[in-house]
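---------- Forwarded message ----------

FYI, see the UDP-N-acetylmuramoyl-L-alanyl-D-glutamate--2, 6-diaminopimelate ligase record below. Original note from H. follows.
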Amino acid sequence: NEVWVKLIGTFNAYNVLAIYGTAVELGMDSLEALRLLSDLESVSGRFQYIVSEGNITAIVDYAHTPDALDNVLKTINDIRTKNEQLITVVGCGGNRD
């Protein structure tokens, strides 16, 4: 079986596989699990993919550790075409971990 999900990135693929395996192991019908997984959407601020009317793509992510930021940038580089410009804006939330 195949499933198309709206979540982007290798890390999300691993998460979807873990959810699927857990759901089936706990007794959920495999096709129902796939149907539900195909409806998942990213949480606001977590690799949120936005395309403007001018066809400019923005990805918003609350990456607040060096490892998280590295994963976000690697995923962006994996999905973008080589002629697309990448501009990164990093903010500091303050009073966070």
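H. also flagged this: Residues 9 and 40 are 14 Å apart (CA to CA).
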